[in-house]
Amino acid sequence: MAEPIDRFADRPDNWFNSPDGRRVLDNILTWQNANGGWWKAYDATSPRPRDHHPTTDPRFPVQEQNTSGSVSTFDNKATYTEMRILARAFRVTQEPRYRQAFERGLKFSLAAQYSNGGWPQRFPLGKDYGRRITFNDNAMVGVMLLLRDVAAGGADFAWTSPEDRQRCREAFDRGVQCILDCQIKTNGVLTAWCQQHDEKSLAPAAARSYELPSISGGESPEIVLLLMSLDRPDERVKESVRRAVAWMEASKITGKRLEKRAEPESGKSDLVVVDDPAAEPLWARFYDLETNRPFFSGRDGVKKASLAEIERERRTGYAWLRPWGAKVLAAYPNWAAKHGVTPVAFDPPPASTAPATAPSRQAASASDENVITVAADGSGDHATVQAAVDAAPKKSEQRVVIRIKPGTYKERVRVGKDKVRLTFRGEDANTTVLTFDLYASKVLPPATQGVGTSGSYSTLIEGDDFTAENITFENSAGEVGQAVALRTTGQRQAFFNCRMLGWQDTLYLHEGRAYFKDCYIEGRVDFIFGRAVAVFENCHVHSKNGGYVTAAATEAGEPYGYLFLNCKLTGTGQKAYLGRPWRDHAAVAFVRCELGDHVRPEGWDNWKKPEREKTARYVEHKCSGPGADRSQRVAWSRELSDEEAAKYTVANVLSGTDGWKPSRTAKSSTNP
Fold it and tell me: How far is CA 483 from CA 407, 453, 529, 672, in A?
């Protein structure tokens, strides 16, 4: 049976120049595949036979053996371990063959990485589980640690080129993002990782018959240790570690240990789980994705509740229970103190299938409000806004306030339909910023088409009775087409002293009713658009280099669309239109607004659809400023009479059938 390749990695420098060392190194070269990688479990004390495939190790079933020599792997420490050995060998011996073999291995490792940052177990890709993003046996972590060391130009890699180091640095960074994207949520709360994840959807995936989709207590600790080793972890990394450690703490198995016993009849050994109050904590290899309960599985692929229920061959031939998480829990306190991260409990309980509840640390600021605090520095209940949203109770009867401390939170935020009566409350809109940089034509794998306008949002609010105070909602993608900063799609949503920043399609009023008071909104093309009914009161609307302020899609039969009441419109660069009709019955009213000289004299555009001039409802009333001159306005817009204008009030536009009166201090979003 072949010895593990890593037995040679820690030999002293003089070994690499010894006859035995040179023989092993030269043998390793013979086992390198044509694509630059290696297979696993070969015997490095012997050269590769010409008429044999890379492994005949009986531990591996036929489907895991590379019979052609054309496929390489990162499983069982393969490829990246050979590369470490060869890099060190070149440093010690200066033998060019070792450097050349390392460089071929590096080219292979970089080529094997998916665009989403993950690595498969094997490459080139096959049709089985070897193509999955593989954390099993630390395959991906091992590759990433090698690339990080190359990028750093450490002692064994000081001779690598600046170009290779940069490529390794970029590949490592993509790998970190893939790790974060793969982290599993249970009831909306981040937990840990599966042994392997689907290479397209990133969902937990199966491998061999007994390796079912799960949360893995075996592979996750090494992932967390990698994240904890980052010199300057960003807020998403901190939250990832924080939540994974909380999961490990909640998922450890205490009072149990494994005991090896011999079977008297067969003389073969067996493993049993026994009670032992003094035993060190253990973690299971697999935890159920929904209940978080440990499970075991034999070759039949059926989940079992105990190790005793699976066949002896699998009990003794696989690592099911080990103290994997101990080193993470030991290292976490110092890491958390260094980076200002506050520990958190795994809440809700992992075995629960009930909706998530608000964190236990929340405090009440009023009898009908619960408060969850978000702080980028880790000093709050959560370090990300989305984590706080996920933790908020579903369909709450009381208002829940997410208090967001100053900071720039680069994340996509979605408030789902079941998150009602939720408030985002910042301290200052200029310093509390929710931002992301997605845009409509951006393709997110595994999709093959762009996300589209609706999918380009930085923040999406679907829940009813939502309010936001002192928050900036931004899309930082730039002038790249449709790129939504804030998308609203729900009833009774209100925004006070907020900013909406972007270029095209900044504020998407998808549907429902929304109120904006003392807000700042900027953009260029159609940057306030959609079919919702909305009122903007005392707002500042700024056009950047022309374009169109509005693109309403008001439904037929709606008496009102957008009402701008006592607002100020400014602009820079080219002149802008007040709006154009996205749909036939677009309705927009500017009442007592100050219009700057950036407003085009004609005011409105028909979007090259003359027929919409008969149905669009574009009106103004007693506006002031150089842009308010109606002498050159299009004939199909008009000035409201005083009697007509009297109907354009917040109450008339937004009250609906439930009598909604938006208020930032109201205890309820609706009136009794």
Answer: 22, 7, 12, 39
| Contact assessment for residue 273 and residue 257, using Cβ atoms and an 8 Å cutoff | yes
CA 184-189-192 angle, to 5 degrees, is: 35
Under 8 Å between Cβ of 433 and 406: no
Q: Give me 388's structure tokens.
A: 């706080």
- Residues in Cβ contact with 157 at an 8 Å cutoff, skipping those fewer than 6 apart: 87, 149, 150, 165
How far is residue 282's CA from residue 157's CA, in Å, rounded to a whole number?
Answer: 37
- Pairing of β 638-639 and β 185-186: unpaired
Q: Rounded to the nearest 5°, which phi and psi values hold at 453?
A: -60, -50
Largest CA distance in the chain: 104
pLDDT for 106: 98
Concerning whether 505 is annotated as a catalytic residue, the answer is yes
Give the span between the Cα atoms of 166 and 509, in whole angstroms: 43
Residues facing 509 on adjacent strands: 488
Q: Find the catalytic residue in 505, 518, 629, 658.
A: 505
Average pLDDT across the chain, whole number? 90
Say if residues 567 and 540 touch (Cβ distance below 8 Å).
yes
Determine the Cα–Cα distance for residues 240 and 40; give it in Å rounded to an integer.
Answer: 32
Contact in structure between 203 and 142 (CB atoms under 8 Å): no
**447 neighbors 408 (Cβ within 8 angstroms):** no
* 275 assigned to active site: no
Helix (H, G, I), strand (E, B) or coil at 12: coil
Q: Which DSSP symbol is given to 77?
A: G
User: Residues near 563 by Cβ (< 8 Å), separated by ≥ 6?
Assistant: 534, 535, 536, 589, 591, 648, 650, 653
Beta strands in 202-326 (DSSP E): 256-262, 269-275, 283-284, 296-297, 303-304, 321-322
CB atoms within 10 A of CB 428: 12
Q: What are phi and psi of 261, to 5 degrees?
A: -130, 150
pTM value is: 0.54
**φ, ψ for residue 661 (rounded to 5)?**
-125, 100
Residue type, 231: D
Q: How confident is the model at residue 664 (pLDDT cuts 50, 70, 90)?
A: low
Q: Which helix (H) or strand (E) holds 643?
A: helix 642-645
> How far is it, in rounded angstroms, from Cα 595 to Cα 578?
10
**What confidence tens digit (pLDDT) does each residue in 294-303 have?**
999 999 899 9
Give the whole-angstrom CA distance, residue 402 versus residue 379.
14
Residue of 156, 347, 526, 605 marked active site: 526
Q: With helix as H, strand as E and coil as C, how does 86-138 read?
A: HHHHHHHHCCHHHHHHHHHHHHHHHHHCCCCCCCECEECCCCCHHHCEECHHH
Residue 353 above 50 pLDDT? no
Tokens of 118: 């993950």
